[in-house]
Amino acid sequence: MDPPHREINSSLFLTMLPSEIRNLIYDYALISAKPLDLWPQQCYDDTDLDLIRTRIPEDAPQTFKIRRQDSLLFIRKELATGLLGTCKQIYNEASGYFWGKNHWRFSGRSGWQGLLRFFKTIGPKARSRIQKLDVHAPIYMRWENRGVGFLDGRSKNHPKMHMAKISAEGHLDYESIMSVCGYIEQDRTMLELNFVVPENFRNGDEDSFGGYDMNHEGGTAPLSCIQQLDFVKKTVVFEEKSYLAVAEGVEGMLRQGWNVSCLPGSFIYEKTGDGNFQRAWVLENRRWNALDYVGGHENGDGLSSVCDHLSRITL
């Protein structure tokens, strides 16, 4: 007697487990509890170079920097991404969890270039499932520690990312911003876009808002592309040890329809009555909502002093 015929493509995982249980497995196996930063500002310094010397030319200068891809290592070693290659049905069921429920970050300098390479690599179907993104703030920023400037769109990565190549451009990312916005506009599935001001960066000088630096090459075109994404919630996030320059900086961002958030551990420069500036340390989350900003005036906390009602320590 012949054994019962069994379809080659059948799977006990698919036939015996109800979809609710399978979804719990996908949730546990494919979603990170923390944002996945594929373009961080953190790097290996000179003392770490011996660990990765095989990827660096012997005559490389001692100031050579390599981006630390800790989140990429986590994806490769901790998340069960092998599930996505099991079969077509499991991929169709699980890929929405991996792409759509993870929080993706490209927070380092030239992060828009990294994001564009990422979009080109994963393809339109995966890209259209992404709902939450963090990317380096699209404003011309200063940085307190000049050492951070060595990381740009041409910096090496460790481990290697194997992403699609793009044309090199300066750290202002004009072309990449417009290309990325074009993809987001085409898909219209993005829900939240956070513009990150990372550690040691600030949105201008103490006495002037660096803002969007309209006089540089590229003008207002990137900003216009971002404004067209009116279906996306946009927030500028000042992270720990970053600097919000002045009140005019908040007002300028609110005019663009962007929320502003200063996280605990960030700093705010405020002009005092004698014309000098003091640096205030943010002790609790401080937020301004663009929807509350009407006709050049904010309903709620006033903009005359960016530190109004702020729990702080003046340094």
What structural category do the secondary elements indicate?
alpha/beta
**Rg calculated over all Cα atoms:** 23 Å
Distance between the termini: 86 Å
Share of residues in helices:
25-40%
Q: Name the average pLDDT.
A: 79
Number of helices: 8
SSE order, as H and E? HHEEEHHEHEEEHEEEEHEEHEEEEEEE
Strand elements, count:
20
The stretches of 5 or more residues where confidence is low (pLDDT under 50) are 1-8, 212-218, 299-315
Record the strand order, biggest sheet: 1-4-5-8-12-14-17
Main sheet makeup: 7 strands, mixed
- List the quaternary state of the chains: single chain
Overall spatial form: globular
Beta fraction: 15-25%
Would you mind describing this structure in some detail?
By secondary structure, this protein is an alpha/beta fold. It has helices at 12-16, 19-30, 70-77, 88-101, 111-127, 174-187, 221-227, 247-255; strands at residues 36-37, 43-44, 66-68, 104-106, 132-136, 142-143, 156-158, 192-197, 201-202, 204-205, 208-209, 233-238, 243-244, 259-262, 267-271, 277-282, 286-288, 293-294, 297-298, 312-314. A hairpin with a 2-residue loop joins strand 10 (204-205) and strand 11. Helix 5 packs parallel to helix 6 and helix 6 (174-187) runs parallel beside helix 7 (221-227). The protein is globular, with a radius of gyration of 23 Å. The N and C termini lie far apart (86 Å).
